[in-house]
Specification:
Oligomer: single chain
Helix content: under 10%
Distance between the termini: 91 Å
Shape: elongated
Strand content: over 45%
Largest sheet: 20 strands, parallel, barrel
Length: 720
């Protein structure tokens, strides 16, 4: 910021300015003339006297570089109009500016919408094109036909590259020529001149997708290293540099003598089809800071970023936007803050210490944005990470609305980046991240459901509660890789609390407590590999509590407690119409070791699933059940119907060193049973019954029976 001790208080009479809300044309022209004169005379602090200033319908207040504007007690009112687009205070390509204290009112309620179209582009304060280092403080915008505050870019380009004409097979060699033997690479054979005035005006260029941010059929470059190759005017090759799409290549950093460039990247030429890419030099606002501002009652959005890098909202209040007023209704998108249209040109957006609430569609939405940081905010209404975004971070926020989204830069799951939530509090709504990688750490979810998809989900030291008797499938875990550590799930009431998402590759629960009360069970996870260690599954209440875990390739369950829970571990055969067993690798891959299974609830209040109250196993080829305690405490029911453990064996079972104990308080002479059954087969199954190897030794059964069924005897080939 250029500084000066001189303060210029705008002379209203000198410039023909009215501060009583009249004479829009002369007032607007006078203010603009005064601001230009102050700049030309090196007056870097400008104060406008208090009052109401009517801004001409066809004009805007144009702010100038290197100036500190103080607009306290000033109300700038847009003259009623029928324009589809306008702004009231405009920063257009300027630098090093501070704006303080302005109150800006649009013409939403008096606007003429009769010309048709959305009329959604009438903005209060706009920073556009190559604005740089703009600070907007203590300002208020309201009742605009579009957005209260906005940053926007143009889409200037050096040129485009259309497949196949401007592309070629191969990479650039050390002489700067195309080597078409590098068949895994594609080169943009067209040269781009970087000496023109358009590029010089911004000082950079970058490689991008098409007008919608995409890369066309058979190509996705968001996570692909792009080489920019430098040439002199006579085609002398000056070497190359690695870059990434949408990242600036600054003119000042080019090799001496560079006049033109072209690009290459790791991509199969033949897989591309009709792709259109651009080399851009768009004018993008950078380092724009909104602090202690208010934006409300605007027709479209409270704030929008339609192009911007290093944009910050700090201590702002954005509320009641896009809701109906007496004479006008809202228009889409209708959020508090919306980040889109610049695609991956939108980067490093920070929202801090803000209160965003009661906007028609939700609190926040972003589409195809690279790097969003939200910290210490309160959000009321839906919060959406959408599009093909990249790297989202949430810290110390309070959410009173659903959270939805994903973090997949390229649209390819393996290229996903992170959505990270730390020390956040989410109340009363669903949290659903369906792509990329999600991390939750030290978060509290109160009366909230969660749904996970995508590549990875990691949950650390979080607490989840849910209490809604009418809801079904309030939780689902469908990530490819799922880890939950040191967390609590307190599920008090719902119709059914959990449903399986997609099949996972690996699931790991460590020191997790699942408390279920007056609710049904469900399918906890469906995975190839499972680890459960030091966990507690505790059920109470009157509803059916049956749950299942589908695990096919391997399982390790140890040092955990299962209390009044009917839980079945299933090798997935039950879910296949041909009853294909989990793969048998000829070694034991499934184990249930050093656990406690306790049943101390009356039969009538904790309804059992027929195939295994307590814990049961089916379709698992080879299984170790060792060093466990199975305990049944009689609650005035016949213990013969209380199966603490039921196993449908397949190829191998080691049942050793377990303790099975029944405490009979009712005087009933029947005993609790542990039932070992044969391989489960539906009637008419054509699959051969496997021959099971059984090891059963050193088990201590106290007032209990271990029953080997006739089905198992047939599998063994002789009676036991």
């Amino acid at each position: 910021m250029v500084s000066s001790n001189a303060i210029y208080v705008v002379e209203l009479d000198r410039w023909g300015i009215k501060n009583d809300g009249t004479d829009a044309l002369n007032t607007t022209n006078g203010i603009n003339s005064a601001f230009l004169w102050a700049k030309d005379n090196n007056l870097y602090t400008v104060v406008v006297p208090k009052g109401q200033y009517l801004i001409d319908k066809n004009s805007s207040i144009l702010l100038r570089s290197n100036t500190h504007y103080k607009f306290y007690d000033c109300l700038f009112i847009k003259e009623s109009n029928n324009l589809t687009k306008y702004s009231i205070l405009t920063c257009d390509g300027i630098k090093n500016v501070t704006i303080e204290g302005a109150t800006v009112k649009g013409d939403r309620e008096t606007h003429n919408y009769s010309s048709g179209g959305t009329h959604e582009w009438g903005h209060g304060i706009e920073c556009k094109n190559s604005c740089y280092n703009i600070s907007i403080k203590d300002c208020e915008t309201f009742e605009c036909t579009g957005d209260g505050i906005v940053t926007s870019m143009d889409f200037s380009a050096i040129g485009g590259a259309q497949h196949p004409g401007h592309f070629a097979k191969g990479d650039i060699n050390s002489q700067g020529n195309i080597d078409n033997t590098k068949t895994d690479f594609t080169t943009v054979s067209k040269f781009f001149d970087v000496t023109g005035n358009l590029v010089k005006s911004v000082g950079y260029f970058y490689y991008s997708g098409d007008g919608y941010g995409g890369y066309g059929t058979g190509s996705n470059l968001n996570k692909t290293v792009i080489k920019v190759h430098f040439y002199k005017a006579d085609n002398t090759y000056l070497g190359f540099r690695n870059t990434r799409s949408y990242e600036f290549i600054y003119l000042e950093s080019l090799p001496e003598g560079t006049t033109k460039v072209r690009f290459s990247f790791l991509q199969n030429f033949d897989l591309m089809s009709g792709n259109l890419h651009y080399v851009m030099c768009a004018k993008i606002p950078q380092y724009i800071n909104f602090s202690n501002c208010k934006s409300h009652k605007n027709r479209r959005l409270g704030a929008s970023i339609n192009g911007g890098r290093f944009v910050t909202f700090d201590s702002c209040e954005i509320y009641n936007n896009s809701n109906p007023m007496s004479k006008s209704t809202g228009t889409n998108p209708g959020y508090g803050i919306d980040i889109e249209d610049g695609y991956m040109a939108n980067q490093k957006i920070t929202i801090r210490n803000c209160n965003i609430y009661d906007n028609r569609a939700g609190a926040f939405v972003c589409i195809s944005t690279r790097g969003v940081h939200v910290e210490n905010n309160k959000f009321r209404g839906p919060f959406v990470f959408s599009g093909s975004g990249d790297d989202y971070f949430s810290l110390n926020n309070m959410y009173y609305g659903s959270i939805n989204g994903r973090s997949i830069t390229s649209g390819v799951e393996q290229d996903g980046t992170f959505c990270t939530f730390r020390n956040d509090s989410i109340f009363g709504h669903t949290f659903s991240i369906n792509g990329g990688n999600t991390t939750l750490e030290n978060c509290v979810f109160s009366k909230s459901g969660i749904h996970f998809g995508g590549e990875t989900t990691k949950i650390i030291n979080c607490k989840f509660t849910f209490d809604d008797p009418g809801k079904i499938d309030s939780f689902s875990f469908g990530s490819e890789y799922l880890e939950i550590h040191d967390s609590l799930f307190d599920i008090r009431r719902c119709n059914r609390w959990v449903a399986t998402g997609n099949t996972s590759e690996n699931v790991h629960f460590s020191n997790v407590k699942f408390l279920t009360y007056d609710n049904g069970g469900g399918n906890l996870v469906k995975t190839k590999n499972l680890v459960i260690e030091n966990c507690k599954f505790i059920h109470s209440g009157n509803k059916i509590n049956y749950s299942s875990i589908v695990v096919t390739d391997s399982m390790r369950v140890e040092n955990s407690i299962f209390n009044n829970l009917s839980l079945r571990f299933d090798g997935a055969g039950l879910f296949s119409p041909t009853e294909v067993l989990a793969k048998d690798n000829s070694y034991v891959a499934h184990s249930f070791i050093n656990n406690k299974v306790i049943w101390d609830a009356p039969l009538g209040t904790a309804v059992h699933e027929a195939r295994g109250p307590g814990v049961s196993f089916s379709y698992i080829p080879r299984l170790d059940i060792t060093n466990n305690t199975f305990s049944v405490i009689d609650k005035s029911v016949a213990l013969s119907s209380m199966y603490t453990l039921r196993v449908f064996t397949e190829n191998y079972l080691n049942l050793s060193d377990n303790t099975i104990v029944t405490t009979n308080n009712s005087g009933n002479n029947t005993k609790g049973t542990l039932t070992i059954d044969g391989a489960y087969r539906k009637n008419g199954s054509t699959l051969a019954i496997p021959k099971t190897k059984l090891i059963a030794q050193n088990n201590e059964n106290i007032k209990s029976n271990i029953v080997f069924t006739q089905n198992l005897n047939l599998q063994l080939g002789s009676s036991i």
